[in-house]
């Protein structure tokens, strides 16, 4: 029987790119996604439009909160690897509705781990987040940096990571967690700053910044995040690895860069800080460089130009 890769959240931003990469490599892929309405499900359907035409692709519309469904999938399909991307993303959304975030991100991950116990799955790659670090003690964050999340989202991802570690120690499951630092690129979530700033800049509308714009972020280009994810299927220990660009830029700097690249007339406007946002993120990626042997290849200048270029093409296509 042929072996398959299950990608949870495979219709989302990162998940759909992972699906495309695996299909390009000739793998058989099952995408499990519930097309959650956190952002327009039509975007998610369009993310997997091309994949859906591939004979090696199968879509299962379902929810990771349904543990019996995951058990059934693992008993009916011959799955070698799970790439677990499904989550309720969004720091600010988690401040509004912490329970949903817990149920999807933490209980949902536990459902997958429990189902894997009685299966032939060889390894799980678990999508974690830089949000597990939260309060900054020092920069860059190495993987040993204290974990004090500042949002329910960060807490839920840290709890999920701990379940992964405990299940590998207790039951011998192979699981690598990847702490992505804000990922951007084509198909990116519409709620992320780079998407919002680009939309506003292209229509010459004011760009709104919450706080004074001195918060800094390490951004990871989607292709780099996908490479790390597919590499981690075969390499990488039962630990967590930082996956980031390895440099940081302030929110002000980001807005100015986007205005410059788009040639926009947008002005920057400042609003009161919002709860749950980390002050700074910056990844030390030396652990991932040693094993699985990954490092970021696309810097923020090149990445933003690529993203904005593709964003414009997609926008023009929609308007036709
Ligand atoms: N994008 C980033 O910057 C970033 C940074 C750090 C970590 N992450 C993590 O990477 C993963 C992917 O993030 P993304 O940005 O692609 O988000 P996304 O929202 O675009 O993708 C998540 C997908 O999961 C699906 N989903 C949500 N709840 C589900 C449920 N209960 N059952 C089944 N499917 C469900 C959604 O419909 C969506 O298609 C998430 O685990 C997220 O926490 C993302």
Describe this structure in words.
With 320 residues, the protein is α/β, with parallel strands linked by helices. The chain has one domain (4-319): NAD(P)-binding Rossmann-like Domain (Rossmann fold, 3-Layer(aba) Sandwich), CATH 3.40.50. Helix content is 43%, strand content 17%. It contains 12 helices and 13 strands. Strands 3-2-1-4-5-6-11 form a 7-stranded parallel β-sheet, with helices on both faces. Strand 1, helix 1 and strand 2 (28-33) form a beta-alpha-beta unit. Helix 1 crosses helix 9, helix 4 runs parallel beside helix 6 (98-117) and helix 10 (251-262) crosses helix 12 (300-319). The protein is globular, with a radius of gyration of 19 Å. The mean pLDDT is 97. The structure holds nicotinamide-adenine-dinucleotide. Residues 9, 11-15, 33-36, 44, 63-65, 85-89, 104, 108, 127, 129, 180, 182-183, 189 line the site of nicotinamide-adenine-dinucleotide.
Features:
single chain; alpha/beta; Rossmann fold; two-stranded parallel sheet; 12 helices; globular; binds nicotinamide-adenine-dinucleotide
Topology, please?
Elements: E1 4-8, H1 13-24, E2 28-33, H2 41-47, H3 49-52, E3 57-61, H4 67-76, E4 79-84, H5 91-96, H6 98-117, E5 123-129, H7 152-171, E6 175-180, E7 183-184, H8 193-202, E8 207-210, E9 216-217, E10 220-221, H9 222-234, E11 240-243, E12 249-250, H10 251-262, E13 268-271, H11 286-290, H12 300-319
Parallel strand pairs: 1-2, 1-4, 2-3, 4-5, 5-6, 6-11, 7-10, 8-13
Antiparallel strand pairs: 9-12
Bound molecules: nicotinamide-adenine-dinucleotide (NAD).
């Amino acid at each position: 029987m042929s072996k398959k890769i299950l990608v949870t959240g495979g219709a989302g931003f990162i998940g759909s790119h992972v699906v495309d990469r695996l299909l390009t490599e000739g793998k058989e892929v099952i995408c499990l996604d519930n097309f959650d309405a956190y952002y327009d499900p039509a975007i998610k359907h369009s993310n997997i439009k091309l994949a859906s035409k591939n004979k090696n692709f199968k879509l299962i519309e379902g929810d990771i909160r349904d543990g019996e469904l995951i058990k059934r999938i693992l008993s009916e399909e011959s799955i070698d690897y799970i790439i677990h991307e499904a989550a309720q993303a969004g720091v600010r959304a988690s401040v509004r509705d912490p329970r949903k975030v817990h149920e999807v991100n933490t209980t949902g991950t536990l459902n997958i781990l429990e189902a894997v116990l009685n299966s032939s799955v060889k390894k799980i790659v678990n999508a974690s987040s830089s949000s597990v670090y939260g309060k900054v003690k020092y920069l860059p964050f190495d993987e040993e940096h204290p974990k004090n999340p500042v949002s329910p989202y960060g807490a839920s991802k840290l709890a999920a990571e701990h379940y992964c570690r405990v299940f590998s120690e207790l039951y011998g499951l192979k699981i690598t967690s990847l702490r992505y630092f804000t990922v951007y690129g084509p198909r990116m979530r519409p709620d992320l700053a780079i998407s919002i700033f680009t939309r506003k800049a292209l229509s010459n509308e004011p760009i709104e910044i919450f706080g004074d714009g001195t918060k800094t972020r390490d951004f990871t280009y989607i292709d780099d995040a996908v490479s790390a994810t597919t590499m981690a299927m075969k390499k990488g220990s039962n630990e967590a690895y930082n996956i980031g660009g390895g440099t940081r830029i302030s929110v002000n700097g980001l807005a100015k860069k986007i205005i410059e690249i788009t040639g926009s007339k947008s002005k920057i406007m400042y609003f009161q800080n919002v709860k749950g946002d980390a002050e700074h993120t910056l990844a030390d990626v030396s652990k991932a460089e040693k094993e699985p042997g990954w490092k970021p290849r696309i810097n923020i200048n090149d990445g933003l130009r690529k993203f904005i270029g593709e964003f414009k093409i997609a926008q023009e296509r929609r308007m036709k």
